[in-house]
Sequence to fold (440 residues):
Amino acid sequence: MKKLIVSAAAFAVVAFSAVAMAPTSALANSAFARQTGQACSACHFQSIPRLNDFGRKFRINAFRDTGTQGLIEDEGLSLPASFNAGLNMMLAISNGKYEYNGVEEFGGGIFFLEDIPPAPAVGRIHSNTAVAWPTDAELVVGGRYGDNFGGVTTIGLIQGHTGLEHYKLAFVYDTEMGPVAIAGGSTTSRGVPYLLNDPSNVFGNNLAGWGWQSVALGVDSTWNGTNAGVNSGGATALGLYTHLNGMAYLALGGVIPAAINNGMAVNFKLSPYVRAAFTGAVAGFDVVAGGWYYANKLGDYNSALLGVSNQTATQYGVDLQVQGAVNGVSIGFYLPWQIKGEDWTQATATTDNDVTGLYPMLTVASGHFGARLGYDYATIEFKGTATPKEKVKTWVVGAWYDVAQNVVVNLEYDNSKWDDGALGNTDKHSAITAAVEYVY
Fold:
């Protein structure tokens, strides 16, 4: 049997970092803490779910390290002696409003998209505050499944989000140059990089604000919260990946978008996904820099809807992550740049929508406190038409305080503006949200 993929001693030398929770289905997993016997800060940089170098290697190696936890072993069997699971719970209150051409339509802060109330009637007392208690609750099970197997399963526990939400499994063959893995699974919102254990923190929900998900990275051409983007939307995928010499991550996969009947497709071509990234230390900083390419083969799925067949929605871009410390202050910089993001799911028979943009974010942390500043900028082009481009601009300003490594208070202000180039209309959304997350 191959021994520990990453030694328990390596866990101990990882410095403590402040912990905060990302919104919309957090990626925290106390099952890993139980399996390894180590604190959450051993793998995470500043705030969960962002990973440091050690946590990145743990994930790429399919969560197989057991630290000091005992194993049940026999021929063809190597399981942790304990059943490792965790419970995530999030509570939030949000105050905000949505305006259309200066007229308030409805409120509810960040939650209005999930359950849009009617526009307030004249003279009606209207509240812009919404409370979600809880806004998220998950049972997370995962870790080591065997000598060469590891994975994670997430089960939603609140109304409207019950049942299987995310699952992934990887079979890893260990070589002298690094792991080579066959991986696959399905997710409702975290994108293909999550399923293929990508090393970067710029994808999935890692940079999501409490308000809008990134329009640019989500390839959301209608500003309705849907994610057609390969990096942050729902998908089912199967692929190969490797991490050569701890420096080069390469992945190749076949994808079925979430829109295709939750991954159960008939007469549907697998959509190719290619990813390459450098990982390593540069001038004392932890750097991940790479790019991706995705060709969504819509095949016969949209033939009746669009009157076309065998259409391909192409998406590609580059990304940069820089993490480190300056004079004892922890600093992180993240930049995903969607160079091309076709969204045929919102198109007509003769045109497609092309979403491009970038989402830089800066995070700073010291001790128990941390802050973040992000700016999501996207343009939407309606190809084949005379419709002017639309622009979406979103500011995200937030702060957190970690009461404990597994109990976090989070405060964030979001301000979004959508300029409709065709009609001259302007949509605005702003919200301030306070949340508490507990991970057990």
